[in-house]
Every structure is written in structure tokens, then in C-alpha cells.
Amino acid sequence: MSDQINLFTIGFTQKSAQKFFDTLKQAGIKTVIDTRLNNISQLAGFTKKKDLEYFLKTISDIDYVHLLDLAPTKDILDEYKKKKRDWETYEQKFLQLIADRQIEKKVSPDLMDGACLLCSEAKPHRCHRRLVAEYLNGKWGNVSICHL
Hints:
With about 150 residues, the chain is of the alpha/beta class. The protein has helices spanning about 15-25, 50-60, 75-80, 85-100, 105, 110, 130-140, and strands at about 5-10, 30-35, 65, 115-120, 145.
């Protein structure tokens, strides 16, 4: 692949709705790709699936897609969050999961270009959205990653 893919990531925690939507709009995002396993809980606030889809389209004409293939399994997530396992173990298990799922064949470069991977974590350092972006760059070799 030769054409550069501009892929963004964002977490909604510690952001107001105004900051969240303004950030996406200013970055020129075309599609928000929800990478969360659970996007309907009360904790999701303004990013609950149906609400988020409506807000994105109405506020900024941004498309919304929920891709469970880019989310961790409940077991992997619970082991890290509830059992307080270390990040390195989570990272290894998640990277193996997305490799097994062959996500690079399930998402197209066209979908990813100008898209923004969404999850809840405020920062990308210990977040699976960063791992997805870096994994795709490793497979495709032409992904420019920007964490919003």
C-alpha cells in the first residue's frame, strides 16, 4: 500500500460533550469507529450508541460505525479491569486476539482513512484503540496515527 492513511483515536472520558465534538469536527473526522465492547451502559453518558450516532451526524455530519472485531473480549477486559492484571498481559492477549481475528482483512483502508477510533480511556497509552491503530500500521505500513 502506498497512499497514506490518516487514522485518529479519541477517548471520551474526562471530556465534555462540547470538547469531544469540537475536537472531532476540528480534526475533520469522517467516521467515528466505536471500538468499545459495551457502548450502551449508563457510564457512556453522551456516547451511548444511539445518542452518539445521532449527535455525530447532527452536529458534524460524521458517520458512526461500531466494530466489535476491534474490541477486547469480555474475558480479556474483565481480567485487566476487575482482576487488576498488568497492562503487558492485557496488551499481549489483545494483540493476539486482533491478529487471530485478522482485523487488517476485516476493515478497509478506505474506511480507516479520516476515521477516528473511539473508546473510553482518556489517554491512549494504556488503551486498546492505540493497539489497533499500531497493529494496522504494522500490517499496512502506511498509517499515520494521531491521538486527539
